[in-house]
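Running low. Any example?
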Amino acid sequence: MSNLIKKLSLSLVFVLSFAMNAQAGGLAKSGEFSGTAFYSGKVLAMVMKGQAPVLIQAEYYGGTKNSAGSGLFDANSFKCNFTLEVIQMPQTDSIGFCTFVDADGDTMIQRGVINGTLGGPGKGVAKFVHGTGKYEGITGDAVWNISPLPPAEQGTFQGWNSFSGSYQLP
């Protein structure tokens, strides 16, 4: 009987310690992430100066995959709205927001700034600005390396990103 009590006590300690360390939705309170994302979008509006665009508004959608196969940004869908300014052809600066949605319907919003070239690669730096559900109160940063693909048709754009960053939950 004493041996059984020891085993049950150890099992209870293990279960309680696991429950105390588990986080909402299986996420740790803080951590790092990396992965890939694919996107497709369209130009919503363009302001021209002669033959060259000076301001472009775009919307795009896509999906993410975490390199670890689970955790933050694994199997998320997203929608982004960005305004892109052509500083000096082909150099661009963009600012915008992306909303990421996970399988539970919880969301994360990032505000990003992208420097790049028109139709070419770019680098984005983003901050978490809002979250719902398990992401409520999220903070942190991410870097997005943007690699465009040839457009499927005029007025659209497609590509993939590699991303990495860190986050903290309250």
Observations:
- Helices lie at 2-21.
